[in-house]
Here is the input.
Amino acid sequence: MTRRKMFLRMITASLLRRRSRMLIALLSIGIGATILAGLITIYVDVPRQMGAQFRSFGANMLLLAEDGKTMTAEQMDKALEEIPENQLVGAAPYRYIRVDMTTRQQSFTAAGTDFEQITKTSPYFSVEGLFPEGTREILIGREIAENIGVREGSGMELTWQPAAGSTEGDPSEDRQPGAVLNGSAEGWGGGTVYVTVKLDQSSRITSLTIDAGTQTPEIGGLTQTDENFTSQFIGLSLPLEPGKDVDALSGATVTSTAVVEALNTARSAEKAAAAKTVKYTVTGILTTGGEEESYIFMSLEDMAAITGTEAVDVAELSVSASAEELEAYAERITQNTDSIRARLVKRVTRSETAVLGKLQSLVFLVTAVVLILTMICVSTTMMAVVSERRREIGLRKALGASDGSIRAEFLGEGMFLGLLGGIIGALLGFVFAQVVSVNVFGSSITFQPLLLPAAVIVSMGVAAVSCLRPIKRAVAIDPAIVLKDE
Amino acid sequence: MSLLELKNVSKIYGDLKALDSVNVHVDKGEWVAIMGPSGSGKSTMMNIIGCMDKPTLGEVLLDGVDIARESSKRLTDIRRDKIGLIFQQFHMVNYLTAVENIMVSQYYHSMPDEQEALEALGRVGLRERAHHLPSQLSGGEQQRVCVARALINHPELILADEPTGNLDEANENIVLDLFAQLHAEGTTLIVVTHDPEVAEAAQRTIVLEHGKVAREVINENFEAQQKEWAKNR
Here is the structure.
């Protein structure tokens, strides 16, 4: 038999045949290792857990089109490519327009969006009823619902009229060449000025005929014939601002202004003709506690059906990442994507970082305290073991054990306990972390394979450190004294 | 030939002289008893000879080496290599079996050898009790295991401190028989005792009183005793 075999035989005999002592020491190491392994698991897992929790507070990044313009769905998708898929919780596009409720002469903000994404970026949206799924279905904010008295299942007729300045809703493609628009406005002395205008498919003026009517022929009447005055309108888009976009005819400011107004009227009439009225079904009432309660929500498709474009004003992104990562993503998007700027919702990202930091330092602190308590506990137990085995230690010394042998034997026993305690602790610790995770965060955690060796090394280390003082005492035992004790 | 020689050995604790200029001489192969009442310095002398303590003054020559001048680390080595100890309270490692207890001694000395340890147990008549724990052995059996343990590394000197103090007469005789056998084989034996019967088994008895050698008694019947013992075996 080798010395090593005998060493192991003595240690295992000491642990197995002195079971009650061993169980106490094992218990203290095991409990310590369990709590440590559990806390470390939570410590490692907390950012992920809390990240998911924080995502319920809403978007932490915004994508905006440059200079108040809109972006296309393709541009948005391109920007999203800068964010790793596994970190992107959701990306909800929004398109805002004003709509009128014809029956009540009230106007509201309508938002076109993707409801599936909204449930991810804004999990706090609470819907009484259902999110719209089909076409011509809307979700309305609680404030509107209470104001106009609609309920889930009610019908609601909304009218959209394109803004005067925009080309949205224009019949552009359908506009027949040669089709004319007519308009009129009040000129000098109560007389009416008439215009007949032709627009191209981009809504620019191609030709203009002015009928000055009863305006003084040698003053306002000249607007009909003065080439310099009429030609400046060609190629301009309506509406125009009098005195700014075009120069007034000298001495006939009032008539000139009337011409511009008449043109704008013609354009407004065309827009009004393009207005669309659609009857929607209310599928649910939205409660958020925020300004969303005064909005009407519909799908992007429904909105495109009335506006004729699939533009997006802003996208709200929920990204599960650290503040630094978020900043890097935002910068990349702004740099790599034309006409899109990414902005962080600082309020959300800052509080996430702060809370995470505090939580991690709390777990760290508790871990340190548990580590120290475990050491004290193991050290005390080993101290008791040494004092209980004084005579045996004395005997071993009398039989010729060197100080080194005594040290090796106690350290060996301690490390063996550390090994067992570490294995038990890693397994129980995972269960502990799992229970905490399920109860506190409501989600389970995956077993970290590194946990086992880490827990074993840490508890063997703790056991070894805890054994230092007891070993010192064991080495100091004088065999001549302890072997004489009755 | 001298194995052990104490020259003017004193051990002083404050005002107390536990040993006072003691001179003792033990030859190789001798069987010597050390007797004396409590406080006479028996234990102090036993600790010094057993390399577990050092004298305040004087020389202790064990096999030619002055152990009074050695470091405690060296003393541990000398004790391990040259001395087999037997105690009154037996002292076994209580969670190791009889054979394992013997192997512990081998382990610290050189190499554990279970076969040799079993043979040693056979010599003290406990071969079949080899795998019993101390708690499963009687006092006499435990002391016999301790004798086997003291022998296992073939020490120059067996140093026994009241080896029969906790034994009944039957077991006392068994142990003394073992000593006689060891003596016959040439082992040097020093037995510290206050039991005259145990002392009478030895060749020579050194009587200590107040830390001094009061007298030495030569056992005139020793040859006859040994013959008697050899016949009865």
Q: What stands out?
A: DSSP finds 14 helices and 13 strands in chain A. Residues 346-388 of chain A form the longest helix (43 residues). The CA atoms of residues 36 and 367 of chain A lie 6 Å apart.
